[in-house]
Amino acid sequence: MPTKPVQQLALVDCNNFYVSCERLFRPDLAGKPVVVLSNNDGCVVSRSNEAKAMGVKMGQPWFQARALAEEHNILALSSNYALYADLSNRVMNLLAEFSPRHEVYSIDECFVDLTGMPDLRTLSYAMREKIMRWTGIPVCVGIGPTKTLAKLANFVAKRHPRSKGVFNYNALTDVQKDKLLSGIPVGEVWGVGRRLAPRLSDYGIETVQQFKEGHAPTLRAEFGVVVEKIQRELQEVACVGMEEVTPARQQIIASRSFGNPVRDVVSLKAAVATFVENACVKLRAQQSNAAMLQVFLQTNRFRPELPQYHPSMAVPLVTPTDSSFIINRWAGHLVDQIFRPEYAYKKAGVMLSEITPNTQRQEDLFAEAGQEEESKLMAVLDRVNQRFGRGMVRISSQEANRDWEMRQERKSPAYTTCWTELPVVIT
Amino acid sequence: MQPIPISAVPAPLSGFVASVHAGFPSPAADHAQKRIDLNEHLIRNKEATFLFRVRGDSMTGIGIYEGDTLLVDRSIDARHNAIVLAVLNNEFTVKRLYRRGGVVRLVSENPIYPPIQIKQDEELSIWGVVTFNLHKLY
Fold this sequence. Notes:
heterodimer, A: alpha+beta, 5-stranded mixed beta sheet, 4-stranded antiparallel beta sheet, 13 strands, globular, B: mainly beta, 7 strands, 33% strand
């Protein structure tokens, strides 16, 4: 019986993605220290190599990094999600041309199945060059027999300049594999990270090689089946398959932190109405209904000296629905229930769960009248928002007081998504 | 039941637009086709095409004016005489590319602007080739 061919899974990911996106339209930023800040200009979420070299840490709160930035002239930009989403789509569409079996993993990572294709080295360099040429985004390619090893190979491709952005774990001899894995800290493994690494260290597991060779039953007993799967993946047994179809989300959360803390219930309800709208758009896009709504509020966790209050309340939606109107009505009631005026709220959100496909709707004795009319209305709302831009038509309580909106003081223009914000060239 | 492996070899599909009507057949039905879509004609390489807004007047000679919109394709090779979007001194510029016999120049289309000679040791960075200019008339 012929043996199955070794899987050649590539993990392609973009280098310093957000910064790379900004640099595409700012050639003057090449080689300069640049960082991109998260929602609310809160923390550093992307750093150029020059900024990394200056000691800026990933996830570092901006107010902490600011002094360092001023000293070294590090440019900080606010997140320009419209730009990043568009460039990500371009990269992913190009990668899709290389293999029909591919899976977009995140905004800047994609698994591409190259099993059975000839000359992987040339192919990998071709992928890298095409993406750079067509979109201006630099990427690295890591190839392995399992997803976990592909991710690790990508890590190597990124770190070792001699690899020139491509690394194939499958091309190594057993001796080379052992040597490589012995030199990588176990925290670098996908699924391990900073939380599990210290606990593995207690068992004498410091390197990836030690993890790979660890006593499986002990690992399973102490850490559970997920960690056992990671170990098997390192041993070249695939436990995580390629997704054929993206599964519909089972929980949809929409939440944001507020630029300025909110104290009044009207503004809170306005914010929550927007979150409901965002969540419902996702719900309708995957053709689902939700049967549970939860609303939560939070005071500022990073200011422990201030009074803290983190309430949440859930309500079942007796008839599963995708209607923004119905859900928002309930969300408003929930906010009324949990709101206390003596607190300053820094974050709020909604979670829709108990999600079912909307073909499976069971008729309920207490079904609210006009479900079908609501659905038609929702479809029109979505089409208008799609054509004219998200938020063109809003539920009325969303208008009141947008003071809570994200601080984004240093955002670059929407170069590829807004006709009036195109990059300018001087002829 | 065995899973069938997906073939990586593309299979050509033919399709055609037609509609089936009951009743008297219209002579126009056989010729029914999709309306012209500008996207198809103006944009060949979608993922590599970007839009830029024009300021300045160094290219008015070929009809590129202030306020116009350029379609720039990063995937096309820039040949001699192509109109290119280039990066010079870290700034974007639009010029006609002169590349002959080892000489590289960026040439304007306006007599008041002299050509820019690119020296041997300098590197000219070509961001993309300008494929179309959109000039609004109304």
